[in-house]
Design goal:
322 residues; alpha/beta; eight-stranded parallel beta sheet; two-stranded antiparallel ribbon
């Protein structure tokens, strides 16, 4: 495993981040395809053994049970000082007023709930999961800064928004003397590259680490076009992200993987990892092979010709993932 600094910070993270949306009590929340605790623990242990030290979850995943399962496994298998643990706030956790969003009340409430579920005194990286148009950004940034100041959070991150929104948040934090974001978890892969237009250049300018979610396009980059899985059959959100024209990109991945004699996932992840603008893709893993492929991709070097062949079929997309 390789390790790099997160953006302009001094904190080291593994080049692969294990995304934990896959883990949680099945039937809780909106995901029917999650793995329960017994199925999850061996995968987290495998990730740790492979040198992965970066773990990402969210309060909203499976109604908080992802945080519970992941937190318990990391307490049992890892040295807390050696891992980087991330979670998120913004999604609705309960009905009624103040059950979601990025108000000061919601942020202060949800960090305590997350820490309890995770079984830790602090999180290394705390994301705002999405932009909240109903709360002044000044209120959000000051509340997040206060979490850093009291030691409940080490660093701040954001996820999937327009570049103007992210720029506004960074500028507001600077004006207020508050903590700025050091990470952006955005929708970015070989099929969806719209982030290259504005968000990624902004992150480079601001010294912000880029941590792509859905680096394998919900698995579409790893299988024949049109193949349905248990997850894709029930993933209504994922079905809105891609289009029929993306098939040509998948076919390019398939050709290069066949020529190399490696799984398609390794090629798609290696393309992301070769980009000096990407810190660590956030991969999901429901089988041991998923982790094996992600770790192997770190050492897979693509040629300039292969990179050009992978990029050539790309077609512009409507903005998605926000």
């Amino acid at each position: 495993m390789q390790y790099v600094k997160l953006g302009s910070t001094g904190m080291d993270v593994s080049r692969i981040c294990l995304g934990c949306m896959t883990y949680g009590v099945p039937g809780r929340g909106t995901h029917e395809w999650t793995l329960d605790e017994a199925e999850t623990r061996p995968l987290i242990r495998q990730a740790l053994d492979a040198g992965i030290t970066f773990f990402d979850t969210a309060n909203i995943y499976s109604d908080g049970t992802s945080e519970e399962i992941v937190g318990k496994a990391l307490r049992d298998f890892a040295d807390r000082d050696e891992i980087v643990l991330a979670t998120k706030v913004q999604g609705r956790m309960r009905p009624g007023p103040n059950g979601g969003g990025l108000s000061r009340k919601a942020i202060m409430t949800e960090i305590d709930h997350s820490l309890t579920r995770l079984g830790t005194d602090y999180v290394d990286l705390y994301y705002i999961h999405r932009w909240d148009p109903h709360t002044p950004i000044e209120e959000t940034m000051e509340a997040l800064h206060d979490l850093v100041r009291v030691g409940k959070v080490r660093y701040l991150g954001a996820s999937s928004m327009y570049a103007w929104q992210f720029s506004k948040a960074q500028y507001t934090a600077r004006l207020g003397g508050w903590t700025r974001f050091v990470a952006m978890q955005n929708h970015y892969n070989l099929i969806y590259r719209e982030e290259e237009r504005e968000m990624i250049p902004l992150c480079v300018d601001q010294g912000v680490g880029v941590l792509p979610w859905s680096p394998l396009a919900r698995g579409r980059l790893t299988r024949d076009w049109g193949t349905e899985t248990g997850r894709s059959a029930t993933d209504d959100y994922g079905s809105t992200l891609y289009q029929d024209g993306d098939r040509a990109v998948v076919e390019a991945v398939t050709r290069i993987a066949a020529e190399r004699g490696v799984p398609r996932a390794q090629v798609a992840l290696a393309w992301l990892l070769h980009r000096d603008t990407v810190t660590a893709p956030v991969i999901g893993a429901s089988r041991p092979g998923h982790i094996e492929d992600a770790v192997a991709a770190v050492e897979l070097t693509l040629t300039d010709k292969e990179i050009a062949e992978l990029e050539q079929p790309y077609a512009p997309h409507p903005i998605s993932g926000h």
